[in-house]
Amino acid sequence: MAQYTSDKKRFCSVFKSSKKKEMYLYVDRKDGVKVLPEALQAIFGEPTHVLDMILTPSKKLARVEAEKVLSEIALNGFYLQMPPGKDEEKIGGYQVPQDSLNG
């Protein structure tokens, strides 16, 4: 069986927020949302599963570079995609970055 989690590829699950339109969470599929910080869970609301995918650096995503998502999952256990055009927010100890995704 193929290994889908490494520094260069990861089997990810994507969830959408029940509280904020266009807010999505990328996590390692094996961990799911059970490892998220409580502060993030409170702001994100009930996660709704959208899709699973094998994420590689060359994968095209709509609002962010795949390498950024892979890096954040490796570092924090998740990547939070904020709605476009929002100011920087701090959720728990996680600073939401200002980049092409976040305005």
Describe the protein:
With 103 residues, the chain is of the alpha+beta class. The protein has one domain (10-86): NE1680-like fold (Roll). 17% of the residues lie in helices and 27% in strands. It has two helices and six strands, in the order ββαβαβββ. The chain has helices spanning 38-44, 66-76, and strands at residues 10-16, 24-28, 48-55, 78-81, 90-91, 94-95. The strands form two sheets. It has a four-stranded antiparallel beta sheet. The model has no long low-confidence stretch (mean pLDDT 83).
Keywords for this structure?
two-stranded antiparallel sheet, 103 residues, NE1680-like fold, alpha+beta, four-stranded antiparallel beta sheet
Helix content: 10-25%
CATH top-level class: Alpha Beta
Beta-strand residue fraction: 25-35%
The total count of helices amounts to: 2
Specify Rg, calculated over alpha carbons: 13 Å
Mean pLDDT: 83
Compose a concise summary of this entry.
The chain has helices spanning 38-44, 66-76, and strands spanning 10-16, 24-28, 48-55, 78-81, 90-91, 94-95. The protein has one domain: NE1680-like fold. The longest helix is centred in the C-terminal third of the chain and has 11 residues, at 66-76.
